Amino acid sequence: MAFDSEDKRNDFAAWAEEMSYEEEKEMKKKEKQQKKEAKKAEKAAKKKKNKDSAETEESEAKSEETSSEDVSAEEVKTESEDASKEETKEASDEESAKDEAEEDNNPDYKKVKKPKKSQEVNIVKELLSLIIYIGIVIILCYCIIEYVGQRTTVNGRSMENTLQDGDNLWIDKFTYHFKDPKRFDVIVFPYEDDVYYIKRVIGLPGETIQILKDGAIVIDGKVLVESYGKEVIMDSGTASEPLTLGEDEYFVMGDNRNDSRDSRWADVGNINKSDIIGKAVFRLTPFSKFGKID
Fold first, then answer.
1. Considering the chain, what percentage of its residues have pLDDT values greater than 70?
2. In the listed set 105, 140, 169, which residue is the last one of a domain according to the structure?
3. Can 20 be counted among the known catalytic residues?
4. Is-cis flag, bond preceding 286, omega within 30?
5. Whole-structure pTM value
6. Count of domains in the chain?
């Protein structure tokens, strides 16, 4: 074939080379397809052969004794598992062939693995569960300390002989939300910032209290009979004269009457119910004295 110019000759050569590449690519694709179909037909034949063999063995097994039936059943099960494996493998091969076809059609094709998010989701769930758990514990601790009870330590000798310096007590902060303190209850109340006193209730709201020179405690004209005082009272303080308690006011004293800063002194005075933190109910330590506080 004659060409008018060298450019036409070069264009023709490029076209011929491109056609040759496309034909070769198409031929390779057809060969792959033929191999795949041949492989598929071979597997189908093998599958059918296995199925026929299984049916034959099953038919023969029915006429044998009980022991033979067990053996045959195991063989049939094995053949069925093989057939299942063949089906799974065939599906996997088909998927691989599909990926290869996509790769042939698109040179820039890249397999992108889907990220496994299950582990990340589980970690997030566990973290959230832990945060919720910690939050619940903190809330419960706050509620217990604020509304139910707390531990406190005795500092001083004002409640001897009932309580000793260093005793660890459990304070009930719940009961007084529903009922009033009773006479002889041991209560805790604030004295100054970060300073708390623990004393025993002697006078109740509305009562008139007076401490005589001989140390006797008179309430509404009657001498109070009690056995908590360690010694005879030497200083009556503000109670040397009759003292009437107001509504929700309580007169408190330490059991160590001559070594106690209590309602007899103006800086402590009568204790309002709203100022009472709670009632001392148990001695936690020392263990030798563990138990209820009277």
1. 68
2. 105
3. no
4. yes
5. 0.54
6. 2
